[in-house]
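Lecture notes, unit on protein representations.

Consider one protein chain, 284 amino acids long.
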Amino acid sequence: MGKSLILPLFATIALSNGLGGAITQPGFAQSQPAPPSTPPSREEPLQLGQPNTGLSPQLITPQRAVTIIGQGQVTAPADIAQLEFTLGSQTDFSDKTSANSPLSIEDKRQAIETAMQPIVNALLELQITKSDLTLQTNALESPKLRVQINKPTQERLQQIVSVVDRAAKANRQFFVQSIGAAYSINNCQPLERVARRLAINDAQTQIKILAIDLNVSLGELLFATAFPLSGSPAAFSNCGSKVSTPAPNLIVPDENTFPPYSPSDPIEVKVRSQMSLTYTIQSR
């Protein structure tokens, strides 16, 4: 299992009572709210704010503090692979009629599924069970065939791709328009914990360096926050998701679309974590 660290995205430093300025790396919005007109008393309870919808945390505290974000990533072989075949139709099923009348939407769906049966039969001959096959057909989109493979290997995936392509050509009613792939694992929690620990270690290392650069002494840990990776509040990791390759942090993957399949891509799952740590600044 490979492990790697990713440098933190940005740091936020509060160097005076109230809200301090935000220092960010290029590419991230800066946040510099004006200080309150009346400085809060140090006896007041600490106010902790939730991060905004972007990646820049909004630090609300009457104490001098420094915040930094660390990232961690761990990789593991996939337990499950899914191949999604989008099929182009060489037959206009809307031209077919039933009792001298146009086919209904349901009749058209059934006609498409019947026409796809030779492709399904070819997969069954490969010892793919019916429970691992999913047909998606409707009147507005190209039909899709999803195949789930347990304990996948590149050889097995390539075998399935070749069989579907040959069966579609022999069928003469469909052709393979595109192929998508998704990888997942059975138990995500251990990998999530490892990735989170790597992110915490990264943040702790970086915040010590930052304190030296700022010529300040760190105090106690104020709070820690797990940040979403793709802008979605629930996306604390992409373990077991449809993202087989790393996606940019600010792009939310389409939950209904698989990334393109490539036989050169490793069959693995990358689990990433992003942690924000805030420490007080001790007076000298």
